[in-house]
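Homework-ish question, so no full write-ups if that breaks the rules, but can someone show me the predicted structure for this set?
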Amino acid sequence: MPPTSDPIQIRLEQLLRDYGARVRRLLQSHGLDQRGIDPADVEQEVRIRLWRAIERDRSAAFHASYIQRVVASAVVDALRRAEVRAAEPLPDEDSEASPLPDAAAGPDRQASDSERMDGLARCLAEIPERRRLPITLHLQGFSLQEIADAVGVSAEAARKLVSRGMDELKTRLRDCGHGEFDE
Amino acid sequence: MVNSMNDNRLSVLYRELTARTAGPASLDADTLAAAATGTLPADRRETVASRLAVSPSEAELVRMLAVLEDDSEALACDLARLARTHGRRQGRRERHQAAPARPLAAPLRWAGMAACLMAVFGLWSAQHMGPGVGSGTSAQAGYKADRIFTTKDSIFAWSNGEGVAQTERSDQLFNSAFNGS
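A: Not a homework solution, just the prediction itself:
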């Protein structure tokens, strides 16, 4: 993007810069920067892809869905690259090898979490798939409405499915000796 | 287990578990964008939901895209406005570039119109004005007629006397021939 005095070009650059900055902030706030991707790289990539698309046809109409796909594609590419990098052998100091486990947690806590994760996986596997999906979506952070849309039921039905499913999961975890649950 | 659990802690554990087992992102950008806007076809919803349930990065991306939707709408509107402005400016520039042809085109147009006007006036006057008044052809015809009459007059004149002189000159020739001079 060479410097220019054309007001349209300046406005376009400003729009893409603002939008890219918004994408970067959202990547950080959604924790995607902890999955091996650099938000600044993704921001730059989104801006370049949009800029190229606009350059291809200045008078074309860009729908929001197209812009959304550009962002999704840039993030997916970055995630895949991060996955490949993570699979490659690392040097001795593997301080950033796995950012997800809580680095501040002590060895006891890490061992305990690891045991609980295994227990959680076993208990979830015992629940039939149709009942498991609303629970796992809830644990993954989706709202009741999003779960309702994904499963194809009403929001009220989704709420009941999640509530009963979570009760069932906690009961199973308790029965397997994986701790008491605060309400 | 000594630590107590709650829904948040369970959720964190589940995301850590799935982050280890999810593998690389497998949903394409179109599917993720459609999932964010809730526009997935009904027959794909469950498959996509099953994948999102076990892939925290893709699930986060879908949630992020849902939040970003309004910004993308706003950007699309701004780009459309900019494209319209660009289109208007482009049109003005093209008209401006075409403008140098005008100095040649305008006089030609006026000359053509003047020629047409003169032709129409000529035809009109030929039809509506009397012969000899405005028509050169009629005037010439009258003039020629006068010449003819003049010629005739001279013919008549010749037969009435002028011709006698010529005859006499001819006779002189004949005379000289006969005289042998």
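Now go work out the reasoning yourself. Hint: Chain A touches chain B through 71 residues (CB under 8 Å).
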